[in-house]
Amino acid sequence: MPLRRCWQKWVNHGRTQCQEGSGRPRETTGREDRAIVRAALTAPDASLSSIVRATSASATIHRRLTERGLRPSRMAFATDMLRRIEDDAEFLKRIMFSDEAYFHVFGIVNRHNMRIWGSENPFEYREAQRDSPKVNVWCGLMHDRVIGPFFYTEKTVSSVVYLDMLENFVFPQLEELQPHVFLQEDGAPPH
Q1: For residue 16, is it within any domain?
Q2: pTM, to two decimals
Q3: Using one digit for the tens of pLDDT, what is the confidence trace for 73-127?
Q4: Are residues 32 and 116 in the same domain?
Q5: How many domains does the chain have?
Q6: CATH at residue 154
Q7: Which residues span the domain enclosing 66?
């Protein structure tokens, strides 16, 4: 909280903490909250959407569960990955991690999206201008190779453009490894 706002709260109300009961009203009742927690404890591997269907509650379920210390776990995913690694020692070597990023042509760094890691604290940066020229670059990483970089010529990457890049650029480079490569992608809409 900014110091000025903190000081104003102290002057006006004699405290810096929020007043109990202030803020947006709850969307669920105590009974619904208990039903949400009961559904999560009964079926620990249930997804949030399945709990919504089971309890007829709104999308505040995640908040209600975390308020009670229940965090979503990816136990099924973790168990499956461990089983695959135990069954095949080469499994992790066949995963290609991929991502894309925009790079400003003139070396401008967007502080909000860019983290610079180093042994010293880097204080120097350049502010990004709106709509400055930039290029979108895709790259894939495996344990023993780098696929790319691939420079998109289109301004916007649609699912058609992304699929074209995979078929004409990525898959030919992985020809000798097919069909045993797993492509890991982030949740970007074109994927």
Answers
A1: no
A2: 0.52
A3: 667 778 888 999 999 988 999 899 999 988 877 766 655 555 555 556 656 555 5
A4: no
A5: 2
A6: 3.30.420.10
A7: 28-72
Three-state SS letters, the chain: CCHHHHHHHHHHHCCCCCCCCCCCCCCCCHHHHHHHHHHHHHCCCCCHHHHHHHHCCCCCHHHHHHHCCCCCCCHHHHHHHHHHHHHCCCHHHHEEEEEEEEEECCCCCCCCCCCCCCCCCCCCCCCCCCCCCEEEEEEEECCCCEEEEEECCCCCCCHHHHHHHHHHHHHHHCHHHCCCCEEECCCCCCC
- The reply to whether 178 and 153 lie within a common domain is yes
Residues 92 and 65 in one domain: no
User: Which two tokens mark 12?
Assistant: 């006006």
Tens of pLDDT, residues 132-179: 788 899 999 999 889 989 999 888 888 899 999 999 999 998 887 777
